[in-house]
Amino acid sequence: MTSQNPLACYLCLEEYNPQSHITYLLHECGHSYCSECLKSLLSIYENRVICPQCRKPSYGSKLSDFSINLEILHSLDRLKDQAQPTIITSNSDCALVKQVPFLVEHYYHLEPHWSNQDVYKGEWKNGNLNGFGEYHFAMGGVYKGNWKDGLMHGKGECCYKDNSTYKGEWNLGKKEGYGEFYSFNGECYVGNWKNGHPDGKGGYFYSDGSRYVGEWREGKKHGYGTYFFSNGKIFSGEWRDGLPVQSETQNLKLL
Q: What's the CATH class of domain 85-251?
């Protein structure tokens, strides 16, 4: 199990504080997220939040529908007084960083083929798909959501033939904005997209328990980010084209 700083949000890794970074509790599963990350999750699902850690739904449409995690806030001062982590520098650890697998890139584009086997049920305007509708692809897969001029546009959910799913925002046929991708093997990406690629801030969670949370550019780790190894070590620093620029690896103690 990967070590996690209990004073920080699981998704953005920013430390909680009672003034500007409040932690909220998902009442169905007990996992906590900061206000900004919870807002992003609320923007995807209607009247519910799907926990990125356990996939259990908690119902609500706004922050006030969820409880502030007072236990974490009351424990901040006590936890900060405990021993600090030991810093270890090791280039060999960075060689263990996993790249985003091909399975995500494989699903960047999925457009209607208008074959006789494809089936669409929904709204039309000006002789094209416009509004809300459900499209069944003959090759496998279903898209359910909004359309603009025959392209996926706005909010929508796509379930692919291998049961991988994407739910989030689209822009003229490409994933763009906030979205969540869950692969058939249990791995997932949660965060911002641009032009069909992870771009901006987001987190990728691997099946072996490791994860990367930070900045992305064109589908690769790029900018500042933190990689949690499955052995408990952490790399935090600058990334370029999917690789760490400098080695600053540390062991975090469970507080």
A: alpha beta
